[in-house]
Amino acid sequence: MKTHRLLAATATAILALTGSVALAQEHSQFDEHDQQVTRDWYNQNQAHPPAGLRNQDRLSSDEESRLHEGAVLDKGLRRKVHPAPPDLARRLPPPPSNHRYVAIGGHVGLIDNKFQLKAVIHLHDNH
Asked: If DSSP codes are grouped into helix, strand and coil, which group holds residue 17?
C-alpha cells in the first residue's frame, strides 16, 4: 500500500513539474500582467533608467519601423540590445529556453538566440 501511494505521489509530482515547464516554455508573448509589471517597474526607475531604456538609447524612426514582433534584428539593432534589468526580469515569468529579455531603444523585448523579436512592450513613444 505504501508503495502504491509513493508511486501515485511521484507520478503527480512529475505531471505537475512537466506542466510547469510546458507553461514556462509557452510564455513567448507578453500578456496584460507582464505589460503592467514592466510599466510599474519603469515608472519606479525612470529617474535612473538602465542602458537600453535611457533617452539617449531611443531609436530613429527607421530603426523603430524595424522593431516589431517577428522581425529578426539586423546588426545595427543588435548593437543596441542590452540585457533587461535583472530586477525587472525577475518580476516577469521565466522566458522559454533559448530566449531572453532585453532592453532596446526604450522598449522591453523577448528575443530568441537568433535575435528574432518574439514580443515587445513599448514603454514610451520615441517620436
From this structure: helix
- In whole angstroms, give the CA distance from residue 38 to residue 13: 32
pTM score > 0.85 for this model? no
Distances (CA, A) of 66 to 13, 18, 86: 44, 36, 26
Which set of grid coordinates corresponds to residue 54? Answer: 535611457
Q: Which three cell numbers stand for residue 87?
A: 530586477
* Alpha-carbon span 47 to 32, nearest angstrom: 24
DSSP assignment of 50-90, as one string? PTTSSGGGPPPHHHHHH-STTPBP-HHHHTT-EEPPHHHHT
Query: pLDDT digit string (tens) for 44-83?
Result: 999 999 999 999 999 999 999 999 999 999 999 999 999 9
Distance CA 76, CA 70 (A): 17
* Cell digits of residue 85: 534589468
